[in-house]
Amino acid sequence: MKIAFHGAARTVTGSKHLITLKNGKKILLDCGMFQGMGKETLSLNKEFGFDATEIDIMILSHAHIDHSGLVPRLTKLGYRGKIYCTPASRDLTEILLLDSAEIQEDDVKFVNKRNAREGKPYVEPLYKVEDAKRAIDQFHPVPYNKWYKIDEDVEVLFTDAGHIIGSASVHLRIRENGKTQQITFSGDIGRYGDPILKSPEEFPQSDYIIMESTYGSSLHADIAPSDEALLKFIHETCVKKKGKLIIPAFSVGRTQELLYALNRAQLEGKLPAVDLFVDSPLSMEATQVTRMHPECFNRKVAKMLEVDDDPFSFPGLRYIKTVDESKMLNFRKEPCVIISASGMAEAGRVKHHIANNIDEWKNTILIVGYCEPQSLGGRLMRGAKEVSIYGDRFEVKAEVGVIRSMSAHGDYEDMSQWLACQDPKQVKKLFLVHGEYEVQTVFRDWLLKKGFADIEIPDRHQEIGLG
């Protein structure tokens, strides 16, 4: 048995890990899209590093595009099997993939108009809406905490990863030559004490572990102070400076966390009387899917549901649906908060809001999650004085704020707690994926002190035998 790492290897996007059994059977864990990788992004997403027609089993850890975004391309290029995931992941992935396909089709129309004028060749999107719909038909939901037999050689178990609604750590029991071994793929590990979701669950002893390491060298601040920091930015920007607070936020997970925090602040009488807009149709759909899966909520949210039937809504909140409504926000003079996708500010309506507000000192752009260094959000986080948006240069006069504790990814203590149910002496090898290499080396040293003896940081397309 061997495993090849075709994405999220020494970087945090494009998750794809391919297990090949001795009999030739191939199991693909995730099929994610690379994001925020600069000029090489498109070429990385065009080539998997493997043949889609040779995949026998596909398993999805969760709905985020860097884990699911190339599933329609996989099926378009020939994968015909089932795609195993949790029920909530199936529902979230459907809206994310359809949105991704629509964006690609729109982008290609623009590019092809320009190419036609310049005599350049016609280009195709990675996949279209019809491809995404066909891929969704291949999804096969499996509940948490129940071993499910895929075939005579492979069983899968999903345990809650606490990262987003439906997120799972994936555990495989694989039988070869009369011997059974367990491989665990962490997916993305959430935070213990998340304001909305259950904490990551314990899991059976594994022989091999593939583990994310996004924040392997960081400790987040307590979750509660992030709520206080959010209210402080609203007060400073909207109340004192009479400006706009622009918050790039992922449609799945981060937007719902922000809305839950604001709803709680409103119930406690702490939320200033300012208008708040969620300008993302996808965020609206994702919030609705989140409401549909209360089985993923922690006890605190379940208790809140006894007195508040919608923890993601409150007076003063308005969802923006149409493009025209979104454009009207640019002409608005009154203070307000605008939450819009994407979280890295690389695409979507938030780029327009940043472009229209970045040159005003009274405004604030608030980053509330991880950003690839090359993304617009990443450049703003690093203190760029000037940025390019849609080909135009903008001087950064607005304040750029960061709330680092608002992360759906666990820090190194959360990840260590996730591993605490394992006997390090029984883990034959641990692979670190989904992280920047410098961070991974720090986390590897930390895990070595915890007793894990064999820790590898694979490079992209590297294939390693598992014995």
TrEMBL record:
Keywords annotated in UniProt: Hydrolase
Source superkingdom: Bacteria
Record PANTHER family: CLEAVAGE AND POLYADENYLATION SPECIFICITY FACTOR FAMILY MEMBER, INTEGRATOR COMPLEX SUBUNIT 11
Protein name per its UniProtKB record: MBL fold hydrolase
Matches recorded under InterPro entries: Beta_Casp, MBL, Metallo-B-lactamas, RibonucZ/Hydroxyglut_hydro, RMMBL
Pfam families: Beta-Casp, Lactamase_B, RMMBL
Single annotated GO MF: hydrolase activity
Keyword Acetylation: no
Record has Cytoplasm as a keyword: no
Coiled coil regions in record: none
